[in-house]
């Protein structure tokens, strides 16, 4: 059965991977609702934007009237809500936008979705789903191997781990997750939530660690690493995340939460060294790229370790990641080498330039 799926934030890093997957690999129709902030880029969608199954609406999720217009005119069967402010460092510098988009925007979308859902006839109403896309950062951080006795089993985030967000970004996402769950409990709006670990891959805005390290390495600039670089993240290739999200949107059980992760726990410094050695291999120069690594003062409140237990989505929906970290990071480095046009346009446009290559 073909559905109409409204994707918010479809011009962003993960949203554009979801839209490309829906258009290229399924028969579903996509409406991309995006405000086009500095992080939104329609160039990430050129491969699918001429499809008859694709439409774009430049709309702010905080604008209730515009959201209402889009819902009523396209009559979606499913909403996949990815639109957000997503960069932790920006949330520390200026939390206001994060509260506005992630909390007020999600509230606005929920209210408009509820009003729209109440107008639907029984079959369409029964099948409707609101899928909220969130992060593992809502759970706070986990013990680091350096902090525990050798041989101690290290815990993972499960769907029942209590929320303990550390940054304005993760607190705003935690708030939005809880709003979504309360709209199910109070108003019976059929919602689902997913919480995912750090993503990497093509079309990633170069303020985040992996694309920034690749581009700074190529430009001969310093490769900034926070603190000792021993913070651990569980990396997932963005196309594996996009497949998981579409699977949850179509087959997930209403009211459930699914954690999504790649079983790839890596210290930031290991990630930077891996990128440097791939570049040494595919684009060698006189000196080693790792000589450009520079340690800088750590971020305030920096979480030390994130790691996901993804066994529920694997068991219940049959999802597994296709990429290992080694295969995905090589593909990513090669993508940036082969897609200079995309990242040059991003850098020439709105890129702020001074940001560290931080991970969430
Ligand atoms: N990047 C990660 O590693 C990661 C991991 C887990 C979960 N997430 C979540 O996934 C979602 C997408 O993340 P991303 O990395 O693709 O983010 P991104 O910053 O690359 O893209 C966000 C998109 O949302 C749009 N947007 C922002 N404010 C908007 C508004 N008010 N109205 C409409 N559109 C707006 C932007 O224009 C952009 O296209 C976010 O909700 C994020 O919290 C991200």
From TrEMBL:
Keywords: Lyase, NAD. It catalyses: dTDP-alpha-D-glucose = dTDP-4-dehydro-6-deoxy-alpha-D-glucose + H2O. Its cofactor is NAD(+). Residues 6-332 form the NAD(P)-binding domain. The keyword Lyase applies. It is an enzyme of class 4 (lyase). The keyword NAD applies. Its EC number is 4.2.1.46. GO terms for molecular function: dTDP-glucose 4,6-dehydratase activity. InterPro entries: dTDP_Gluc_deHydtase (IPR005888), NAD(P)-bd_dom (IPR016040), NAD(P)-bd_dom_sf (IPR036291). Pfam families: GDP_Man_Dehyd. GO terms for biological process: nucleotide-sugar metabolic process. Belongs to the NAD(P)-dependent epimerase/dehydratase family. dTDP-glucose dehydratase subfamily. PANTHER family: DTDP-D-GLUCOSE 4,6-DEHYDRATASE-RELATED. This is dTDP-glucose 4,6-dehydratase. It comes from Alteromonas genovensis.
